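Hey L., structure's done. Input below.
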Amino acid sequence: MRDTLEQLVVRHTHRIPSPAGPAGSGEVAARQFDAALMSVGFKLSGPALEHLSSLSGTTVVGTARRVLTTVRAMVGDHVRHNVYFVDFPANVPDTLDFWMRCIAEALADDSTRASTLEQLSDGVVDLLTLPSYGRYRHTYTEMLAAHDELVPAAGDRLTVLHLGGPLRDEAGALYLALAGSSTPLGEDGLRDLELLAGACADGPQPETIPVRENRAVLNRARLAAGAPLLLDTVTDVLRLACALSDGDVTLTGPTRFRTLLRPVRRALLAGLDAVVAASPAKLADVTAHREAFKRLGERLHPHEYPRWPHAADVFAVARGEKEARSFDSRVEELLAMHDVTGAVKLLAAAPGKLFRSLDRLLRMALDQDERDAVAGAAEQVVGEVSGRVLLSVAEHLRNRAWATGERRVFVGRTGRAWVTEDTRPPVLPPERERLIALIDEETRRRLPEVGHLLVDPDVLDVALPLSGKATASGLGVLPRGSLSPVDGELLRFFVYWKERAQRTDFDLSALLLDSDYRTQGWLSYTALSAVEGEHSGDITEAPDGASEFINLRLGAVRGTYIVPQVNIFSGEGFEEVEESFFGFMLREAEQAGRPFEPRTVRMKSELRGPGRVALPLAFLRGEDGRWRAKWLHLYLKGHPSANQVEGNQVSVATLLRGVVERDYLTVGHLADLLAGGGTTVTRWDGTAVPDGPVTYIGLERPDGLHPGSRIITPENLRDLIPA
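Output:
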């Protein structure tokens, strides 16, 4: 468990917990550790190197072993990345010439000659039947021998690892940060929170837990530790039951409830009984998850516990034996009668629901009096709405200026995306501007006193993480809608996957679009080379893991957009394979090196989504000629098999247009609000560091900041969201 906690701290905070060990002369081991880190794109901060040097060599070596294992996995260097064409990106053949060579080799093979001739007579050859297609033709060692060493460059990534406190303190602080997050965590974040909750059950606990999914994870740990449960709705109990069954605590998917031990059943029933006894109106929440409560009742056996009659009422409502009218049904009844004013008065008792309904209410309002009633109610309750909801509504309203008929992009909690025509009438400008100004003022009021705000200009275009579901886990990953600079001559994508139980073929492709989102070309296994770059070759199975790469010369790219994508051609999905991830590297032309060089990796993210086509990000050429990454984190449903870049050009272009043209709330928006409130905001030039404490916001934490400074980087960007 200690190693696991250390791994979590390093991955989430880029801090090395201060090792516990005897003093000694660890200078040599510490410098060797630092050199090993630099080979994979990391480096010890000055204080970290100094502290490790004061410890025994044995302690330093043990720390180095654990940390190096962690950071290598962070960049994808924990696996071997081979390529089909041994000296890629050199000597990649023309696609048709390569296919003809594979056919010639199959005809020269006694075991495949007959079947190949038969296919040729039919006019169609299945590439997968050719013995030299889709499988590595050389070893990893032979591939390494075909490449020169990487030439170090000033632009290579160096992520600094800073010195932290004792492991217990670092783990406790991370636990409090994740548990008390004001925005939902992603799947990996919830899993990490569960590990931390078990280890920190006897330590300090968060004062508030705004996100219900987090509360379910903590309640599972509290139940195991015999601590009181944190329950104030019947849905809290349902989420806890899902957590106990290793199910979906977000309640977006079904959970197969396990048989529960009697003490656990008693705890859940007692919790339900207490919630309903304190507020019988909360029975109305059951109807939203009626089927899940029915299944849970089959496991809890409430009829065996007559001393908790209110718990039995929960399942009576689920079965339809008892009526409990929901708040939402009352609102819908009023709206069905076009009683907007009545609906507004009712929704004022639930401020969050009122704000999430503003667009619909304003569209249904028939006259100015009703529109004024909607805006007036929002002004009265704005102080009771969570910061995340406020910012989400503000972003929504900023994107409601367009006319009816535009394309509307939907993105689910899991990243599944689809597009439809927007048939809604627009929100009229007076109310839209009035509400945006209201939310901006309330947000400014809630932002904390930050003193001197020091901002890295590169972080200003990073989208606010209003949900952890909009960000994949990994290194250098930013929320959906963010823009980040791309500096380098060569851009190289990579995908790695390892199948679990059946033959699985992932295909890496890159779609090139012009400024009007029209296709200019692509690179894929069907188009191995073009003026822009090269594909490393198709690998069609991955029992021991497989990699594919695309190399692009940015100066030669036609068009305005580059859209890398991972298509599942056959086999297991992204959530079924043993492991899969995507990333990109940046290099200068003279650097050479292996196909995969960890110190050139700028981003690596896990591929874990519900579709058969993954769109991690896109690259945009600005009017100034510079390239920037636009973060997508999207998945298309695709086909059950044989997904190809050629078949999804239109849907990919439409989705990209929706994301590119959407106005996302960014870090720059909050910085502007702070500056408007009188806060001193300084753009950091990368050199001058103020003497006193600052609040620093940037993509990386710089060395030399005052110890009393507050640091915000992508790893804890959620801390910017006001409560």
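The longest helix spans residues 57-75. The chain has a mean pLDDT of 92.

-- N.
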